[in-house]
Structures are given as structure tokens and as C-alpha cells.
Specification:
There is one protein chain. By secondary structure, the chain is mainly β. The protein contains no helices and 11 strands. Strands 2, 4, 5, 6, 9, 10 and 11 form a 7-stranded mixed β-sheet that branches.
């Protein structure tokens, strides 16, 4: 069973940066396909970023492309989301997700493993 623990959220001002981390345990991290999702108040959970095939290709939602960067350190079982130029509309609970299978990176239901989430609040 894979356990995921996120950290790094907080309250920042528009234009600031935050770095979220997700530490995985209980699985074979190098084989996991990792992604980040977020859920704003009153909205559905949405895709933010993920690694593609072989952990090389990177995929981002249009709303964060150019501002957010996903990375991973297999030696530390960690995936990171660097968030720059934050906007108030980035305010949400951010979730780390993982799966072993291939398929749709954007499909929430395809990820069986989820962290508890970390709150990011961006004030204007």
C-alpha cells in the first residue's frame, strides 16, 4: 500500500512562490507515476501536473503551464511542485496522487493513491 504525505502549503500573496513536496512510502517509488491535482472551494478536483511515460515527459494544465514545475527525486521518494507567480485563482487544496498503471494521466479515477492534501491560499 502506497502512502503519500504532502507538505509546503501556506498563505502567500499574488506573485509569490511556494514549493510543495510529496513523500511516498510503502511502494516502489521509481515505478510510480506521480501527479498533482487541486480542488478549489465549490469546484471539482482538477489536474495540475504529472509525469508521462518513463517519468521523462512532463504534462501541465494550461492554467499553470509556464509557472509551475513538477520534479521528482527517486532517491528520496519525493515529488515536488514548484509554484511561481502565484495567482488568487491558484487557491486550492493540492493533492499528490500516484499509480502504477499507464493510461490517462488526467483522469482522477485512474489514481488509486492520494495524499491528504495541503492548503494553498493566494491573496490578492
Amino acid at each position: 500500500q502506497v502512502q503519500l504525505v504532502e507538505s509546503g502549503g501556506g498563505l502567500v500573496q499574488a506573485g509569490d512562490s511556494l514549493r510543495l513536496s510529496c513523500v511516498a512510502s510503502g511502494g516502489t517509488f521509481a515505478s510510480l507515476r506521480m501527479g498533482w491535482f487541486r480542488q478549489a472551494p465549490g469546484k471539482e478536483r482538477e489536474f495540475v501536473a504529472a509525469f508521462g511515460w518513463a517519468g521523462v515527459s512532463l504534462y501541465y494544465s494550461d492554467s499553470v503551464k509556464g509557472r509551475f514545475t513538477i520534479s521528482r527525486d527517486n532517491a528520496k521518494n519525493t515529488v515536488t511542485l514548484q509554484m511561481n507567480s502565484l495567482k488568487p485563482e491558484d487557491t486550492a487544496v493540492y493533492y499528490c496522487a500516484a499509480k502504477y498503471t499507464l493510461g490517462d494521466l488526467y483522469a482522477i479515477d485512474s489514481y488509486p493513491y492520494w495524499g491528504q492534501g495541503t492548503q494553498v491560499t493566494v491573496s490578492s
